[in-house]
# Entry
Amino acid sequence: MSRTFVGWPAFPRAAAAATQDMQLRSNVTRATGTIRGKRAKLVTERPDWEDLRDSAAALKDEVLAHLDRYLLQAEEQVTAAGGTVHWARDAAEANRIVTELVRATGEREIVKVKSMLTEEIGLDNALEAAGISARETDLAAAIVQLGDDLPSHVVVPALHRNRGEIRDVFVREMGRHGRPAPQGLTDEPAQLAEAARLHLREKFLKAKVAVSGANFLVAETGTVVVVESEGNGRMCLTLADTLISVVGLEKAVPTWRDLEVFLQLLARNATGERMAPYTTTFTGVTPGDGPQRFHLVLVDNGRTRALADRVGRQALRCIRCGACMNICPVYERTGGHAYGSVYPGPIGAILNPLLKGPDDPQTASLPYASSLCGACNEVCPVRIRFTDVLLKLRHEVAEGDAKVKHPVEKAALDAVGAVMEHPAAWNAAVRAAGRVGPLMPRKRLPGPLRGWTDTRNVPEIPKESFRTWWKRTDGGTK
Amino acid sequence: MSTGAREEILGRIRSATADLPTQSPEVPRTYLRHAPDVDPADRETVLALFAERLEEYGATVYRAGPAGLVSTLAEVLPAGRVMVPTGFPIAWLTQWAGEALTEETTPLSRRQLDGLDAVLTTCAVAIAESGTVVLDTGPGQGRRAATLLPDLHVCVVRAGQVFSSMPEVIGSLDPLRPLTWISGPSATADIEMIRVPGVHGPRRLTVVLLLEEDQSRDAVG
# Structure
């Protein structure tokens, strides 16, 4: 069985351990620093960046407000184009549906395109229990799978591993699952990518069944959109006879034209590219081209629970670009595993409790895994107001079941304190966060603070932190 | 079972969104219709931007006028076995010495496609700002597997197919056709977020920009 986050310690304990791991911190700091730089450069290329964010947020709100209608429309279009649509209330039901579909083909080994949803529901283990081996084909997902590791980032699941560690995993594990790593493999990224190409080529050429997620599902046309870099996505989406796309309810967008908004935002914000190398869009089945059997599995698994939360539902706008992780000073110190979920970082701190409820001891501490610096608000392409949702969820934990709340609140606050205990590093991180732009809550504060904003606007929060100001002016005397 | 799940999920959605107004606020569309600082009527600028962005992502770009196209293709194509999808103008290949394979009668197997030296296609449209070529499996473009397995993709893009931005092209594409949006050759940034070219998709992308008569004269000089 591959590893899962089931039984993983809650954030306070996991974070305490992670912050002691100097190799991990160095890997995460280096990778997030690289991607922050690339993103910043490409975002400034677009004078209409804020307009694109406005449109994306509004489009997602429109979808969420009428999600029943949009999903029915998507179902109708996919069906008309020769696909079959399945609905799954929870992880177990989704896994059962996919397992049955694969079993019906008689295949024992299938290929997968990286999908956070299939990680969330534990699909690989469910398939393995049914005697089906699901091989990951995205480079980072393959690194995680071969290393019996866990994903730590939504865009780059192996972000916590450096090149040397990746080389060791390839040399040790590739031969056990197919073509071994080439003799004399070094830790050069180009050589590692070549090793992955050779190892997976054999699997693509044989694959009969593929499982994918989706970045977007266009309601108007029933079109599934998969954005990727390597071509492993194209291989899976094109070469298999049977394709099963497992898609969260929230992935819908209203119309085909709306992709002009999301496709212009996603890669810039996720990997610092104008477009990812490959975007595939397809609708149902195309005779003579690609899989002739297509199944779309729509998965709830807590999404309707999140949708019912008036403040928290904005978390469902998320397009999984990972920018909130890359900018977050807490994530940079703990890495992704400490969050105990396939969704780490600021989005994980709000999405997991919304999907699972505030009484889950694992997720209840996550709203505290933040210093509320607000950098995530500023980089979010769909304008999720993370800090609003974090405060609302903290309020819920504080008002909630006493057996969960007291230990969680205390331990979580202690843990965040410990993560931040190196003031010099912390100040540098907050200064970096401040540079992306001032935090400007435009509407109302959530939950217990709403009363305060009933009669006044939230003030602008200064670009300079109090600590910086104090240091610069020597306590206001200069 | 499945019908029960469908009705239950739809019911959950309706009760979760019951507090929301039925009429949503209008979606703002104030973002740019064209690439920033580019006049889409200024063809030379649009084409220059397209070439620049493609090259930035590791593609190789050639410019040729109608008179020079035949020799340019002979130069960029390997003298080996190349997939040339049905509908590709074979008159463009008169100087090339290699062997053209089509799928006119029977589709090639995956292993056969994998063993080819290149695939040569046209495209549906192209986007200058992001350096993107869009294939829609139309004439001269072949089915998706044929443009995926060979290690070199040579794509002929007519100048008139190049638009400045995504909003300019999206309405002209048919979502019922499978579309492949290609922005540079295959790449990965999965190791320490450093971009490494070439993983599974074609590791080399060559774009031949076919210019109109007058533009090509400028380009030759």
Summary: The radius of gyration of chain A is 22 Å. Chain A has two domains: 11-45+322-449, 66-299. The first helix of chain A runs from residue 11 to 18.
